């Protein structure tokens, strides 16, 4: 593996690591999954097409994470926390309180929608994958992924409205 590819893979594995953390993996598990994914990537390097490297890395790591959840029987609690502070830069005490409330509400809402919908939203907005990459992961078209994302966002909005209404 040449140095340029190694640097690219390292960068992508960092993105995968942060996605796993956002999905609720603890630091040590995420590190183990990244290491296993990297080893598997090297083993299958010759069979992976260049256009599919990103999608392959994310899909393998996510599958390994779900396998670890099945082993621990925490399948329904895979979205433990979405760290809003990673996405926003607020500094005043009032902003911090609002951020914490949003964090709690968003985590709760993601936990109440179907797993696949939450995964799609995390891949798109936290993993920053393109529609094409997500489509490769799910074996479908980017138009289909776009439609699924719109539906997932509607579900999150509906759950958020219910949470706000009923507190």
Provide keyphrases for this structure:
single chain; 167 residues; mainly alpha; 75% helix; globular
Concise summary:
The chain contains eight helices and no strands.
Task: Detail the topology: elements first, then pairings.
Elements: H1 3-22, H2 27-43, H3 53-72, H4 84-87, H5 93-112, H6 115-126, H7 131-138, H8 142-166
Helix pairs in contact: 1-2, 1-3, 2-3, 3-7, 5-8, 6-8, 7-8
How do the helices and strands follow one another from N- to C-terminus? Answer: HHHHHHHH
Largest sheet: none
Q: Which structural class fits the helix and strand makeup?
A: mainly alpha
Number of helices: 8
Distance between the termini: 53 Å
Mean of all residue-level pLDDT scores: 82
Strand percentage, roughly? under 5%
Binned, the helix content reads over 70%
Radius of gyration: 17 Å
What report would you give on this structure?
There is one protein chain. The chain has helices at residues 3-22, 27-43, 53-72, 84-87, 93-112, 115-126, 131-138, 142-166. With 167 residues, the protein is mainly α. The longest helix has 25 residues, at 142-166. The protein is globular and about 55 Å long. The chain starts with a helix and ends with a helix.
